[in-house]
Predict the 3D structure of the following.
Amino acid sequence: MSERRERNPTILSRIVRRIILGIYRVKGWRVVTGALPDIDKYLIVGSPHSSNWDFVFFLGATAKRGVKAGFMGKHTLFEGIMGNFMYDMGGVPVDRSKRANYVEQVAAEFERRDKLALVMAPEGTRKSKGEWRSGFWHIARAAKLPIVITWVDPEAHRLGFSEPFMPGDSFGQDLAHIATFLRKHRPDYERYKVLEAQAQALIAAEDA
């Protein structure tokens, strides 16, 4: 994952960004709590990951605040004629083959760059019941990055951001902190209840 030389963004990427911002406005999405921090490098993590539209709304919300957010993508998508477009959209190529350690790859990419706000969906797939995978946490610890939590209400077209926080030594404790923040804004949302239960189970296992 080498640095790209400075050049003008592709016409296609500029058109797609304008379309995404237009959809974001038309749909009436609003950031109603918090703001993105004025720091150079951090992770943005949130849920639910329930629709193919998630990328559009996250990209729209970050762009409205002057942040060009990044996202991870399979390394083969950055080859050939689509490579420049993927980079211009904020893509970070990751090789997820069995021999490759994607945590180390992404941490190295943060080390190489002067600025990067990377958006991650810790639920992994839209079929998740609400449990989070730990990849984002390991990346944050490896690259010494703060984490910004995002709560999302797709039905009401609302979302919000937390203050950044540094990950600690316990994934369970950090997940409990995240679940508390998310449930503060959507206390009855089932996926956030599942996340809270996952955090409590992890803490109990750590203490056993």
User: Anything to note?
Assistant: The CA atoms of residues 162 and 181 lie 8 Å apart.
